[in-house]
Design brief:
Layout (H helix, E strand, L loop, with lengths): L8 H17 L19 E8 L7 E2 L18 H5 L5 E2 L10 E11 L1 H12 L2 E7 L2 E6 L1 E4 L10 E5 L1 E9 L2 E9 L4 E3 L6 E13 L18 H41 L2 H6 L19 H26 L8 H14 L1 H14 L5 H29 L8 H28 L26 H27 L8 H28 L6 H41 L24 H39 L5
Parallel strand pairs: 9-12
Antiparallel strand pairs: 1-2, 1-3, 1-5, 4-12, 5-6, 7-8, 8-11, 9-10
Main location: membrane
Keywords: Endosome, Golgi apparatus, Membrane, Signal, Transmembrane, Transmembrane helix
Family: Belongs to the major facilitator superfamily. Phosphate:H(+) symporter (TC 2.A.1.9) family. Belongs to the nonaspanin (TM9SF) (TC 9.A.2) family.
């Protein structure tokens, strides 16, 4: 079988250059490109979005709430990744000029109508927060508070809006290093009753000098991921996963080596005796093993799309490890995903067309169309539904028409041509499928199989072991995607990814052998189902199980955070929980470390139980497969 051609060196160089340039473009840039200012210079401040704290995916435009609108409202031109991330930056009503202190500077005087009061009260009830960018630095703050003290009946609650905020900005020479914002607890507006309210919005600015260099100003946003107790949890989970993987893979290797050794001894020790004996197990179906699978066009399309997505994953890991995806530059990730997927579509076309032609397929054009739509079509349908819902609720997740046109043009002018070029190259480089044995003319009948050898039980067993090795990292990823936690430890994630690849390959080979030993020669799709279950079904199941894991794992983590951050000053409470800790915060390392050990031990216990159950199931399968083979 002829080897597949690899992309040339120039293609890799061009791809890397495009990725790095596109990632750099996605940065939320200020008007001062060099980030250097003189006293009195205006520093760009953009209001981004507002939304409920407990649902970070639900965000709206900042001025959807009746704030004071500047006289000259200016929308910032955003890159593709920023729009996909839901960022909608507009000029904020505050003016924070460089090194200019302000005391109770008035923004505007506004009379809130009953409808506007009700809108603010609804936002305060849902713990709405706002997000802004000041010289590329993200800042957050809550809109108001609910007074529940001493009130058992919710109808007695008091709702207040913060009308005065205090900005504390740190600078080093001519650069902005850090900014914090906190509301004035004494400047409140009562929103409890539905009546017109007069509000005087104001703010205070204080500048302070710091020795922190400009190059390290973003480090505080990733401190929550690198705190000692979080790192210990990650490393404990990795060590435990490695030990579990080594034990179970060693166990499976022992079974395979013993069974295969006995089979080879049986068929090679005495050839004449072996010819006289009735063949059983995998030797019995040697003439059917390399029979082409059903729906070979779909199988080749799935192989091509999977190869493209695997290549996409590798490039994303490379960019993450070199530091492109730093905290709160998530637009870079979305841009990289779009660009890399478009540029790697040629790999999908080449792989699918080459393999399809090796399987003696004739309609390679239809195979290319299937390859191009296998991933994009479900993604497009899902996008249409979600974007319609976002438009209905006026959320920032709704993509503008111009962005949709840009994505369609990328797919039409880049993805599709590269897919066709790759398919043509794969078709012209096809080689005959050279099986090591001759395939019989008629397939053998597959004997009846017990229920636990069916497709669904086999998929469940295939996904159980890899999922038990990665579910701790999945929790942190989900907490980052659907929560306020930041994930920046890409090196650990890469190690877990390597573990996942090893376990996936090994468990797929083992289950494929067990299937052949049971004289079931239709292994093509079964092996694909095993990988599909590990990469898709198990991840989908983890989304459902995330709520239960969140109660346990996040509950313990919340206790750790509360005890560790018990000495945080008032300024820390205005930032997102579990996200930023100021330099002045001094965590209690001893107590936090002890609780981190407890949480890691709980995770280890869960993985050991998972490993025990998986071992029992593997033993049961191995015994049943060995019993079906006659050793003579």
């Amino acid at each position: 079988m002829r080897e597949m051609k690899k992309p040339t060196g120039w293609f890799v160089v061009v791809l890397a250059a495009v990725l790095l340039s596109s990632a750099a473009v996605t940065k939320v840039r200020s008007d001062g490109s060099d980030h250097r200012y003189k006293a009195g210079d205006p520093v760009p401040l953009y209001a981004n979005k507002v939304g409920p704290f407990h649902n970070p995916s639900e965000t709206y435009r900042y001025f959807d709430l009746p704030f004071c609108v500047p006289d000259h409202l200016k929308e910032k031109k955003e890159a593709l990744g920023e729009v996909l991330n839901g960022d909608r930056l507009v000029s904020a009503p505050y003016k924070l000029d460089f090194l200019t202190d302000k005391d109770s500077e008035e923004i505007c005087k506004k009379k809130l109508t009953k409808e506007e009061v009700a809108k603010f009260r609804s936002a305060v009830t849902k713990d709405y927060y706002f997000q802004m960018y000041y010289d590329d630095l993200p800042i957050w703050g809550f809109l108001g508070k609910v007074d529940k003290e001493g009130k058992a009946d919710p109808s007695d609650y008091k709702y207040y809006l913060f009308k005065h905020v205090q900005f504390e900005i740190f600078y080093n020479k001519d650069r902005v290093i850090e900014i914090n914002v906190r509301p004035d607890a004494n400047a409140l507006v009562d929103l409890t009753e539905d009546k017109d309210v007069n509000v005087d919005f104001s703010y205070t600015v204080r500048w302070k000098e710091t020795n922190t260099p400009y190059e390290k100003r973003m480090e505080k946003y990733s401190q929550s991921s690198s705190l000692p107790h979080h790192l210990e949890i990650h490393w404990f989970s990795i060590i435990n996963s490695c030990v579990t993987v080594l034990l179970l893979t060693g166990f499976l290797a022992t079974i395979l080596m013993r069974v295969l050794k006995n089979d080879f001894v049986k068929y090679a020790h005495d050839e004449e005796t072996a010819d006289d004996q009735e063949e059983t197990g995998w030797k019995y179906i040697h003439g059917d093993v390399f029979r082409f699978p059903k729906y070979k066009s779909l199988f080749a399309a799935a192989l091509g799309s999977g190869t493209q997505l695997f290549t996409l994953t590798i490039f994303i890991f490379v960019l993450a490890l070199v530091g492109v995806f730093y905290p709160y530059n998530r637009g870079a990730l979305f841009t990289a995903l779009v660009v890399i997927y478009a540029l790697t579509s040629g790999i999908a076309g080449y792989t699918a067309a080459s393999f399809y032609c090796q399987l003696e397929g004739t309609n390679w054009v239809r195979n290319l169309l299937l390859t191009g739509s296998l991933f994009c079509a479900p993604l497009f349908l899902t996008f249409c539904f979600l974007n319609t819902v976002a438009i209905f609720y006026s959320a920032t997740a709704a993509l503008p028409f111009g962005t949709i046109v840009v994505i369609v043009l990328i797919w039409t002018l880049v993805t599709s041509p590269l897919l066709v070029l790759g398919g043509i190259a794969g078709k012209n480089s096809k080689a005959e499928f050279q099986a090591p044995v001759r395939t019989t003319k008629y397939p053998r009948e597959i004997p009846p199989l017990p229920w636990y050898r069916g497709t669904l039980p086999q998929m469940a067993m295939a996904g159980f072991l890899p999922f038990s090795a990665i579910y701790i990292e999945l929790y942190y990823i989900f907490a980052s995607v659907w929560g306020h936690r930041i994930y920046t430890i890409y090196s650990i994630l890469f190690i877990v990814f390597i573990i996942l690849l090893i376990v996936t390959a090994f468990i797929t080979v083992a289950l494929t052998y067990f299937q052949l030993a049971a004289e079931d020669h239709e292994w093509w799709w079964s092996s694909a189902y095993d990988v599909l279950d590990i990469l898709v079904l198990r991840i989908s199941f983890s989304v459902i199980a995330f709520s239960f894991k969140f109660i346990i794992v996040s509950g313990l983590s919340f206790v750790v955070d509360q005890l560790v951050y018990s000495s945080i000053p008032t300024a820390c409470t205005t930032t997102m929980h579990g996200q930023i800790c100021l330099v002045s915060c001094k965590p209690h390392s001893s107590l936090g470390t002890w609780l981190a050990y407890a949480m890691a031990s709980f995770s280890c216990l869960g993985l050991l139980v998972s490993g025990l159950l998986c071992s029992l199931s593997v033993i049961y399968i191995a015994q049943s497969s060995v019993s079906s083979v006659s050793f003579g």
